[in-house]
């Protein structure tokens, strides 16, 4: 793929379908097998030191939604796999990420473009200190933000127009109460979360509480989500799904 086509493809993909920017739990991010290559000792140490000192990554990953992995791994890293792998190993809780809805071809183009950007910023050179890697990362962040500035403006306009259109067509939807887990159905939970598999796992957790005579509370559901073995281990129901459930539903 020549340069002009590659730039057009990543421009179209990143300019039309950005979803979100923020922190994701590290356990929510899957790393493709093709990107699980060995990281050099020097680079591993530098990344580890930066993550430890800053408590997260200075430059956001690029990720995309996926259903190819476990129920908790809701995103696949497109760029920044080495940072993600080191973060998982040293148990960094959250990572900054840009979330884009990318096809396989768009993901490959985005990764190629970011690698070119990193290369032009000389990020691949081994710095002599953590201060040097911070400076280089900040330079890359500035360049990356300049490219994304126009994307943010387009996204704000797109979201604003979509919200206005939805309000005009479905005014009752914005006033609808969140499902009450005490009296709701499995279907309502699946619809509220927006994922049938996650909703099914959450429903199993609720049934577990009911069948064992325990109250349906956020505290009890969180305990089930954190249980790793035994009778209270609910297949597929982990901390990621618990957090989505708490955002999408209510208990009253």
Question: What would a concise description of this structure say?
Answer:
This protein is α/β, with parallel strands linked by helices and 252 residues long. The protein has nine helices and five strands, in the order αββαββαβαααααα.
Which strands sit side by side, in order, in the main sheet? 1-5-3-4-2
Helical residues, percent? 40-55%
CATH architecture field of the largest domain? Alpha-Beta Complex
Number of strands: 5
Distance between the termini: 56 Å
Give the amount of beta strand, in percent.
5-15%
Q: Which class do the helix and strand fractions yield?
A: alpha/beta
User: How many domains comprise the coordinates?
Assistant: 2
Low-pLDDT sequence parts: 6-11, 13-17, 122-128, 171-175
Shape assignment: globular
Tell me the radius of gyration.
21 Å
Q: Any idea of the CATH class of the largest domain?
A: Alpha Beta
CATH superfamily of the largest domain: Conserved hypothetical protein from pyrococcus furiosus pfu- 392566-001, ParB domain
Order of helices and strands: HEEHEEHEHHHHHH
Overall pLDDT metric: 78
